[in-house]
Specification:
Elements lengths: L17 E4 L6 H8 L17 E5 L7 E5 L14 H5 L7 E7 L10 H13 L1 H4 L3 E6 L4 H15 L4 E4 L8 H14 L22 E6 L2 E5 L1 H9 L5 H14 L1 H6 L8 E4 L2 E4 L6
Parallel strand pairs: 1-3, 1-4, 4-5, 5-6, 8-9
Antiparallel strand pairs: 2-3, 7-8, 9-10
């Protein structure tokens, strides 16, 4: 049988209910460790997380859900900066985004700048991704600077219709209320719709076993991977192999289809590299 070769490019996309996003060192890994069974690396420097992590969150008395933590995003992530495009695809199939912001590092002159950077990158990568519901967790509330800056930050975002929670991944302050709200939102949200990047993907494609076409008067051609493979693999010097060949043609429905054609007994049918007279199929 003739062999076939092809090149495949496989792309992994994580499947989670909630996608955890934010700038580097926003405390995402610490937060994921605090609320789930995941144990991502935690350190006091940016880009500690180099690979996406999944954690199962099980709030007491509420439905469990899956949370995906991707490495911190930076400006230009949608163009690949900081491997951003490799990470953003992992949250395309989430139903809700949890945006962690390190409140202690906010710019007093532009209190929402950290939030805006991430949302801009999501929008540039995929409008469908940016349109997902977003909940903001103002993180590191255990630090003095955070408590001072939080009221103004919350006011600025809630003016845009964004829900904001004050939390601390380190001390678990405010985490229970946040998780309760996320569970309520997940129950109300539908399953994630297929995004533009995946619309043309085909998981299954039906291929007919064969097709019969008339090339000219008295000459027909039969094509199709299954029937051509059957012909190529049959030893026509063996009566037993020929008998098996005919049984398989009948099982495919080929013999019945032949009877529906306006073909003569001496008409020639080409299948692959072999030619058969019409009458040979009925011996």
């Amino acid at each position: 049988e003739p062999g076939k070769s092809l090149n495949l490019r496989l792309e992994l996309k994580l499947l989670a209910d909630v996608g955890l996003v934010g700038l580097p060192n926003a405390g995402k890994s610490t937060f994921l460790r605090a609320v789930s069974n995941a144990r991502p690396k935690v350190a006091d420097y940016p880009f500690t997380t180099l690979n996406p992590s999944l954690g199962i969150v099980k709030p007491e008395g509420l439905s469990a859900f899956c949370m995906a933590d991707i490495p911190g995003l930076i400006e230009g992530a949608h163009e690949g900066a900081g491997l951003g495009t490799q990470f953003l695809r992992h949250i395309e199939r989430t139903r809700l985004l949890l945006h962690l912001v390190d409140v202690s590092q906010l710019d007093m002159e532009n209190i929402a700048s950290n939030y805006d950077v991430i949302m801009s990158e999501l929008r540039e990568f995929s409008q469908e991704l940016a349109d997902k519901p977003v909940v903001v967790a103002a993180n590191k509330m255990d630090l003095p600077d955070s408590r001072e800056l939080f009221p103004e930050f919350k006011e600025a975002l809630e003016a845009r219709g964004v829900k904001v929670f004050a939390v601390s991944g380190a001390t678990s302050e405010g985490v229970d209320d946040l998780l309760k709200y996320i569970c309520q939102q997940l129950q109300e949200l539908r399953e994630p719709v297929q995004i533009a990047g995946n619309e043309e993907e085909k998981l299954y494609e039906f291929l007919e076993a064969y097709q019969i076409e008339m090339l000219s008067e008295g000459h027909w051609v039969v094509t199709g991977p299954e029937i051509e493979r059957l012909v190529a693999m049959t030893d026509f010097t063996s009566d037993e192999a020929i008998a098996v060949f005919r049984r398989k043609l009948k099982k495919l429905g080929f013999i019945e289809d032949l009877t529906q054609l306006d073909a003569g007994e001496d008409d020639v049918f080409t299948i692959g590299e072999m030619e058969f007279a019409y009458r040979e199929f009925f011996i």
